[in-house]
Amino acid sequence: MLMQTYETRLDGLRRELAKRGLDGFVIPISDEHMSEYVGAYAQRLHWLTGFGGSAGSAAVLKDKAAMFTDGRYTVQVREQVDGTLYDYEDVPATSPAKWIAEHAPEGARIGYDAWLHGIGWAEEAHKLFAKKGIELVPVEGNPIDAIWDDRPEASLVPAVPHDDEHAGRSSADKRAEVADWLKAEGYDSTVISALDSVAWLLNMRGKDVDNTPVALSYVLAHADGTAELFIAPEKVTPELTKHLGNAVTVRDRADFVPSLEALKGKTVAVDPNHAVAGIFHALAESGATVVRADDPTVLPKAIKNPAEQQGHRDAQARDGAAVSRFLRWISIHAPSGEIDELTAAAKLREFREAGGVLKDASFDTISAAGPHAALPHYKVDEESNIPIPPSSIYLCDSGGQYLDGTTDITRTVWVGPGEPSAEMIERNTRVLKGHIQLDMQKFPDRTSGGALDALARMHLWNGGVDYGHGTGHGVGSYLSVHEGPQRISKPGGAFPGTETPLREGMILSNEPGYYKAGAYGIRIENLVLVVPAGIASEGEYLGFETLTFVPLDRRLVDKGLLTPAEIDWWNAYHAKTFAILSPQLEGEDLAWLKTECAPL
User: Fold this and answer.
1) What is the mean predicted confidence (pLDDT) over 356-373?
2) I want to staple 295 with a disulfide (CB 3.0 to 4.6 A). Which of 271, 447, 460, 599 is the partner?
3) Strand partners, 530
């Protein structure tokens, strides 16, 4: 019955396209801000196909359709999307545009929503289609919205100020920095369209996207230090108006496009990596001079000031105590076989909420038992949920949103009874060695994340194995858990940011892993802060300060494979873990912590 529903939806879309004189349409997971996570109102791909992943797209023609996902979702897309309705296509081996160029007839008119795609995608697709005699057509109103009868409304929850104590800088100071950049470059204005950039610039937060405290809005920032905030009137409170002050004009979100069209004769900077094609089209039609330039908030947002750094330490300490309580709970109850993945995720949320200051999860908890742990981006739901098997590996990747910081931690633990296999121990130890190697590394200032990536993989490579995801991503301050521009990943890979120089004050994850398909998976993830290396050096050298403190499972470690330096790291890490967490725990939780933090 469910698949008939998706078949009916696909048929309805094709009828709507035919009414509009279109032969095809491209459906991404996106919103008007090119967000990684989108609100329920923008979950068009999920509604149409049933796919619940966070990255993917679909292309629909009159007689064919296809789903496009990368290696993270090879299994998931086949479980959730009907293969009789959609072909399964792998990215980056192909793409929606390439697939359409191969399958659409000459003269076909292919629609796309310019408010959901980046300008780079639109331009590349246009060039590719032109070679095949295919026309790319921006639509007026998304055709899926026309057939989605019960589509949720966009959130109207009020936006709220984020106080300077936690932000570490006033919004006026941040806007002045942007204004100085505009004047230095000779620009009149810049469009700030990424939701976390708007939130950072105005010291404003919201509840419009699950797991990310942002408010649906745009900003036009000007060279005189003023700004215009475009946001639904229902979201604006007297408290927010007072917080923004006289230099920020609050306007209806519906006025955004007319305001772009009013910039005739102005030079406007727009970031093609964060602004949809519709913004570029509106500015071009207005007669403005459009300059493609990086969002001026991205780098200062990534370089955390002292208040944000301390906030992260405080949030991590609080979060670490909650995760430790959870791991003890797992060790007691999971061996019975009566705890399933959803129950475990809910219990972890309960431990985090017990502190009374949790605002939200920072992403949907990856509570992965047995073979599900081999899926790096597994998302448990009612259909996929399984009991945690006794005598197996359990992987939990989770995080919390707090006013003073955003957390992200992965722990892999052995669920008894019995002992893990020699292979599991060997693989986990290699992951641990890579984690330690990266954590301990010193490097010249402005070294790129791509230059460090192999350090986390070297011991896995020496064992003839690897992992398919990046090693580290940036993390925001009570903002996005995946924040650019920095990244630790293989150079030349599918993810941007590997060439971004690392700077003092940036926060990244350190998360090597190993995944044996159909069997088990391993990941060890802490967050780290880029700090001065504190060594004698020729020139400026940097290193990492560990921020995350939660015990690692010693049952999955072969001490004989560790060097003396690695054993020293383990012991020092757990000594500090005990020092930070023990004042927050008591009774059996404290006794458990003491045992887990004993020297190796």
Assistant:
1) 97
2) 271
3) 544
Q: Which CATH architecture best describes the domain 303-569? A: Alpha-Beta Complex (3.90)
User: For the packed helices 587-596 and 564-581, what is the interaxial angle rounded to 10 degrees?
Assistant: 170
- Topology (CATH level 3) of domain 2-147: Creatine Amidinohydrolase; Chain A, domain 1 (3.40.350)
What the block records as the tokens of 265 is: 């004769």
Token pair recorded at residue 317: 């300490």
Q: Euclidean distance between the first and final Cα of the chain, in Å?
A: 55
Strands of 38-86 (E only): list them.
57-61, 65-69
DSSP one-letter code for 216 = S
CA dihedral 310, 312, 316, 317 (to 10 degrees): 10
Q: Mean pLDDT, the chain, as a whole number?
A: 96
pLDDT confidence of residue 383: 86
The full set of domain ranges for the chain reads 2-147, 160-301, 303-569
- Identify the CATH homologous superfamily for domain 160-301: Creatinase/prolidase N-terminal domain (3.40.350.10)
In this model, does residue 494 exceed pLDDT 70? Answer: no
Which residue spans within 385-525 are E strands per DSSP? 392-398, 400-402, 405-406, 409-415, 443-444, 472-474, 483-488, 507-510, 513-516, 520-523
Answer for the pair 268, 283: CB distance below 8 angstroms, yes or no: yes
Cis peptide leading into residue 238 (ω within 30°):
no
Average pLDDT over residues 295-299: 98
3-state DSSP call for residue 485? Answer: strand
Task: Kindly give the pairing relationship between strand 409-415 and strand 87-90.
Answer: unpaired
CA dihedral 297, 298, 303, 307 (to 10 degrees): 50
- Pick from 328, 277, 324: which is nearest to 138 by CA? 277
Per-residue pLDDT reduced to its tens digit, 137-165 = 999 999 999 999 999 999 999 999 999 99
Taking the CB of residue 582, how many other CB atoms lie within 10 A of it?
16
Q: Nearest-CA neighbor of 48 among 99, 101, 85, 76?
A: 85
Helices of type H across 334-418: 341-353
Instruction: Encode burial over 257-294: b for 16+ CB neighbours within 10 A, e otherwise.
Output: bebbeebeebbbbbbbbbbbbbbbbbbeebebebeebb
7's tokens: 């078949």
Closest CA to 55 of 65, 47, 67: 67
